[in-house]
Amino acid sequence: MGHVIRAEGLRKRFGETQALDGVDLDVESGTVLGVLGPNGAGKTTAVRVLATLLRPDEGRAEICGFDVRREATRVRALIGLTGQYASLDEELTGRENLVMIGRLLDLPRAEARARAAGLLERFRLSDAGGRAVKTYSGGMRRRLDIAASMINRPRVVFLDEPTTGLDPRARGEVWETVRELVADGATVLLTTQYLEEADALADRIAVFDHGRVIADGTPAGLKARAGRQTLAVRAAEVFRTGQLAEIVAELTGERPEVRAEAGLVTVPVTDPGVLRAVVQRLDEVDLVAAEVALRLPSLDEVFLSLTGHMASRDAADEAVGEQRLEGSVR
Amino acid sequence: MSTTMAAPPASALPPGRVSARRTVRHSLTLAWRNIAQLRHSPEKLIDVTLMPLVFLTLFLYVFGGAVAGNTHAYLQQLLPGLVAQMAMFATMGLGTALNEDMRKGVFDRFRSLPIARSAPLIGTVLGDTVRFLTVMVVLTAAGTALGFRFGSDPLRVLAGFGLAYLFYLAFSWISVVVGLLAPSPETVQGLAFIFVMPLTFGSSVFVANTSTMPGWLQAWTKVNPVTHLTDALRALLVSGPVGNHVWFTLAWAVGIVTVTFPIAMVMYARRA
Question: Complex ipTM, two decimals?
């Protein structure tokens, strides 16, 4: 297995903002790399450089052995790109968009139509294929956008925050799509702000901050470094929150955080087995829980443990750099 | 590092550059995009449908009697002038549309495809031919209804409209540059007007006899490409000697494209 995406020392500056500050990436064939980071960390810039949309100031990058700068046309033939906002013609129908892209990829007219029909079917858009894209829901747009990136049967697929702004159902559909892509043999680089998403889809995760890769590894390794999971229990009867907090404290040996008005008790845990113990005890004392969950650390918590600072504050500081690229739709 | 790189099989090796033939085909596909948009929302042609009607009736009845003694005589010189003016005005929507397009994601898609950088811009310009055709059909039909008569043979008429189309294509690239230059779609119109006003009014479009103008303005009208296009059109559509006007117009068209096309390409690459 070779590396189909390879980047070394990528740097890119927009005015005052150093969007990329020496990024190295290696992605093996047939795997998914999750690029995790807050807004403004440089994720989009990295994708745009790798997809030949942006020239790096320094450093080099290769896709399947082709230099993204000198052999951009070859690279473009091998990749599929789905941006954060739909790269589609809103006024055309879904089918027209796909046929147009097929024709731009030099497919004969009949073949372009056939592939468009096949992709509409596969992405459950056959019924909507004749409607203008501007009438589509967010999830449909994203699916059509991904379908549009599939027309050339790419070896490498870039998905830039493919689920941002989608409802949970649409998000699940996009996840399913990503898994199908990998099953078809594509290599995928996807950016996300959610550890949960990277954990669900990626073989490896690269965490971006301030235009650098600050951590790189498997999801399991990253979670281990990022620290503990959170146990959250919510009492169905809010007045019993106090009792619930006592039970949780006793079983975990930690002082839980209590939000009495919501009946919510949260506590960091190291041993996932504690979940079972809590459920059992609640049963014994006949305390009904409206919610019992073991949550992965959030991006903020990952950042806190990796960098000592929170992710969201940087987002505000650095949004300027990528606002030009990201501003249009959200 | 290349030793660990997964090399694609030789048969699947994608071409390294885009041939001229493919660029033409891609441009036509992208021109089709504009035409398909118009098919979905034909109301976008409302400006090029009403513009010639308003200009024709206003100028004909405001200036007709004063400039040429009667409206019929004036119509015979005004209509070719309006063909020239409308060829220019019809390009103005292009800049606005392009400026809006660039804000949306679809141009990102084009950039990520293995097509020539110029194809989306060339396609946009060619696709706008529909606007040119609309303007010319409405103008000619309305003019004919008001009493305009072609004074030459069909071949010369066709040559006249062909010349106007070439000038239109060239002028489109000015609109493209303005569209790429302007910070927002709203500013495109304002900027475009600064170009268009002196060109149309400082010409022979509305007044065939420019000898009553002050010397500096006459000097301007003499070099103004719109004057040459108008005078060529008067000869080709109505009557009279063509002189050098066709050549001057063509030279201007080539000159405009030579200057604006590279500028447009650089601006387009910058906005990536």
Answer: 0.83
